[in-house]
Amino acid sequence: MLWLSRCIHRFLSALALIAPLLALDGAAAQTLKSVQERGTLLCGINKNLPGFSGQDARGRWVGFDVDFCRAVAAAVLGDADKVRFIPLDVPTRFTAVQSGAVDILVRNTTWTLSRETEYGLLFPVVTYYDGQGFIARKERGIVKAEQLGGGRVCVHAGTTHDAYAADYFESHGQKIDIVAFPAPPPLVKAYETGWCDAITGDVSALYGLRRTMAAPAEHVLAETVISKEPLGPAVRQGDDQWFSIVRWTHFAMLTAEEKGITSTALAGGTAQPSRFLSEDEDLFQELGLKAGAELRIIRSVGNYGEVYERNLGSGSPLGIPRGMNRLARDGGLQYAPPIH
Ligand SMILES: N[C@@H](CCC(=O)N[C@@H](CS)C(=O)NCC(=O)O)C(=O)O
Q1: Crossing angle of the two packed helices 64-77 and 2-38, in degrees rounded to 10
Q2: Which atom number of ligand 1 is nearest to the Cα of residue 199?
């Protein structure tokens, strides 16, 4: 009988060892498989935030976040156009990921621990380092946020900004009236009519909101930035493979910039051959993708610097300086781990 009990014990121990692997394998392939079977990536985006996402005159989705969705589709489906863009507002953005209504959320969203735990999400990477700032009428001469003490600051409800502003003014011993609006149009209107002294939000969003105002040149950003707002894509927990694909899509764009590989050089056949672009050494295949994913990403949207400048930087009406989003070697925070 002893031999039988030993056998059973060994069998159960072996099962315990492989069970997590089996579970992981099942969960791991889920999102990639369903995206490939569907033939379309479902990407949750902002309906209209200049520079990040919106529709151009021809109805085509454009912007920094939109390009990230397109890059993932190029990697996964071989075609950057195979994306269905699903506009999500502030309250529905997280539940849409949780319920599977979207495969990925790319909507100027701040990575916080509470969002990961509350909604069962993970933020694989930071595509844009931002912070919370203030915009006010130029004539008010607001340079420091403290100059707004005793006044009224308006904010988009359900964002990180409401609580961060309250904490900030409290820690400076100042009273402030913070009023939250459900969407940008009434928020901007309340500010433009003089009801709010300032709007607070992500600095990048304030550049965008200023473009929607009647006289953009009459409004300036204060110098004060009161928070860390690491913006990036969010995915559901429990799918390591999908998490890695999303994360390495960003790192592929950064690596290309680090190596000076541009979409124009690729199109003109003048890109220097590199181990990163060599199909023989293509580690992206280990993520379940067809060979050449890095090439497809860069050909379709460009390297990180190209995407930044086109949508937000010098090549765009926003003209946001690269700042913290410069490559680490240029003094910024954007840094890709090595591929090999
Ligand atoms: N990064 C912040 C803010 C995101 C956010 O929704 N910002 C507002 C502007 S302050 C926005 O994008 N509004 C555009 C819209 O909802 O149409 C967060 O994740 O909570």
Answers
A1: 120
A2: 10
Helix (H) or strand (E) holding 153: strand 152-156
Asked whether the predicted pLDDT for residue 21 surpasses 90, the reply is no
- Ligand 1, atom 14: nearest CA belongs to which residue? 49
In ligand 1, the atom with minimum distance to the C-alpha of 206 is 10
- Within the chain, all domains assigned CATH 3.40.190.10 are found at 29-129+231-330, 132-227
**May I ask the CATH class of domain 29-129+231-330?**
alpha beta
First CA to last CA across the chain, in angstroms?
53
- Going from the Cα of 156 to the center of ligand 1, the distance in angstroms, rounded, reads 7
Does the C-beta of 204 come closer than 6 Å to ligand 1?
A: no
Domain 132-227's class? alpha beta
- β-strand 219-221 against 121-122: which pairing, if any? unpaired
Q: Which tokens sit at 103?
A: 């495969």
Coil, helix or strand for 126? coil
Structure confidence at residue 280 (pLDDT): 65
258: its two tokens: 């680090």
Question: For residue 220, how far is its CA from the centre of ligand 1 (angstroms)?
Answer: 19
Could you give the CA distance from residue 161 to residue 168 in angstroms, rounded to a whole number? 10
SS3 67: helix
Q: How far is the CA of 255 from the centre of ligand 1 (A)?
A: 28
Using CA atoms, how far apart are residues 326 and 68, in angstroms rounded to an integer?
A: 17
Within 13 Å and on the Cβ side, how many CA atoms surround 294? 25
Distance 253 CA to ligand 1 centre (A): 24
For the segment 286-298, what is each residue's pLDDT rounded down to a tens digit?
999 999 999 999 9
Distance, CA of 65 to CA of 311 (rounded, Å) = 9
**Taking all residues of the chain, what is their mean pLDDT, rounded to a whole number?**
91
